[in-house]
Amino acid sequence: MVKFTVEDQEGNRVEHEAPTDMGLSLMEMLKALEYPILATCGGMALCATCHCEILEGDAELGEATDAELDQLENLPEFFDTSRLACQIRVSDMLEGAVIKLRGEDQ
C-alpha cells in the first residue's frame, strides 16, 4: 500500500491509501476515489483531461514522457510539475506525494 494526498480544485486535501499490486494508473485510482477526472481518452495521453500538478514528491516520479509533454504544452496553463495522471503508475514512488487536480481548469 502507498499513501498520497490529493488536493481538489477548492484546496481541500485528503490523504488516501492505495494498493501498489494492481497495476493501476493514478488516473484510474482517482476515478475510483470519485474525483472529477474526465479521462476522455481512456488513459492514452491524448487529451490531458487528467492533468494534475505534483506539489510534493515530483522528483520520485521521474520526468514526463514526450507524449505527456505534447499534451501538457497545449494546455492554457501548465507547470514544471504538471503531469498526466494516466501516465503515473500507483507504486511506491507515490509515497508521500501531494497531487493537485488541475483537469477541470481547462
Automatic annotation (TrEMBL):
Entry-linked SUPFAM superfamilies: 2Fe-2S ferredoxin-like
Matching CDD domains: fer2
Cofactor: [2Fe-2S] cluster
Gene3D superfamilies for this protein: 3.10.20.30
Statement: the UniProt record of this protein carries the keyword Ribosomal protein: no
Domain 2Fe-2S ferredoxin-type: 1-105
Keyword terms, alphabetized: 2Fe-2S, Iron, Iron-sulfur, Metal-binding
Family: Belongs to the adrenodoxin/putidaredoxin family.
Identification of the protein by name: 2Fe-2S iron-sulfur cluster-binding protein
Source organism of the structure: Algoriphagus sediminis
Record lineage: Bacteria, Pseudomonadati, Bacteroidota, Cytophagia, Cytophagales
